[in-house]
Structure formats: C-alpha cells, structure tokens
Amino acid sequence: MEFLEHLFGEQLEVGLDYLQLLYLKPLIRLPTLLLVSTERNTGKTTFLNFLKAIFAGNMSFNTNEDFHSQFNSDWANKLIVGVDEALLDRREDSERIKNLSTAVSYKAEAKGKDRYEIDFFAKFIMSSNNEECPIIIEQGETRYWVRKIQPIEKKNVGMLNDLKAEIPQFLHFLLKRKLSTRHESRMWFRHDLLITDALRKIIMHNRGKVEIEMLHIISEIMQIKKLKEYQFSI
Question: Mind listing the pLDDT tens digit for each residue in 12-25?
Fold first, then answer.
C-alpha cells in the first residue's frame, strides 16, 4: 500500500478504485492512466511490471512503434495495454489512443491473415519521461488521468519482488473493499476527480503558440493592473 500511496498521493482512493475496477469489472471503460516524471527511480516502470505480474497474459507491453503497425492481434484482445517510456506526440497516435479508449469493437489483424472484428475493452496505462507532451491532450478532453510521480526516497532494488509477494493479499483486499466512487461518466470517474497539474501542463503545452503568447500577455496585464478578470472582444 505504501507504494500505491507514493504513486497516487492525495488521489489514493481513486487509484484503488481504478485497480479494483480493472480486477472486478474488466468491461468498464476507464481513463488512460499516464504516469510522468523526468526524474529517475520513481517507480513508474515497477508499477507496470506489478500489473503484469497480476494480470499476466491479459496484459501486453507495447512500444511506441507498435501503434504505428497495422498488425495488432497480439494486443487487441488484452485487458491492459502498457507502454513504458511513452512518446505518442503525433496527432494520429493520439487520436488512435483516444478513440480506442472508448471503442467497443475493433478490427484485429495478424500478419498474413484477414482482419476480423473483436470486442474491445483494453485500458491503456503508460509511463513517460516527457512531462510536457508525451501524448496530445486538448482542452476539454476527459479520457486521460495524468499523475506526476516523484522519486522514491528510499531505493529498494527488491521492490518488485516484494510487491509480487503481496499480490494474494492485495487482490483479497480489492475483493472486499468498497468502491469510493460511483459510475458517473463514460470513463466511470467524474472528470473533476481526474484533473491534476500534470494534466494541465500537457494541455497547456499543446495549445497553439499564439494562444499561449496571448495568455502570457493577458496575465501580465492583469498582474500590472491587479485585475481579477479581463474581458475583451474579438
């Protein structure tokens, strides 16, 4: 639990709900979870490996390049698609992830075989060293949950093995635990529960340069004139 507290911080209950829903309600749509940090020894990769130990063959590790390939039969039927060191800052990559996060069916394709339609219920869980633009997220988007992860203070080279040893007790805990949230959106969680500074940072970076410059100018005017709001017409 200490490791999850490190990852989810003040959003621990939401994080536990996320994991509980993965385990007990696998068909429920969930937001794409993105853990970001430019620093090392944060536990991002360890978390992905911990999930792999829990869900085993029902989780696939993808590279960024896997999303560029037409062949997807190795991951299209998984519950979790994990991406370590994600960098999907091309518009087509971001659109694909965004659309798949709410898709109910998908065309699977293997090399040398015809495409075929399958039920699709995968959740995307990613980590990235890029805090500004690991993926394109625009204002008003509700399909992402982004958390900035701090370094772990006490380094433990055996952390993953320790976490694996606790899996039976952890799953029993999830089985008995009462959810802290209700089904309030297409991605289960009420959107305001998922808003973080890390999400805002990515959204701000993806705004157009002109818009960012205008915001800086307006902000300076408001500070100089000590205004609480600023209105103008176009």
Answer: 999 999 999 999 99
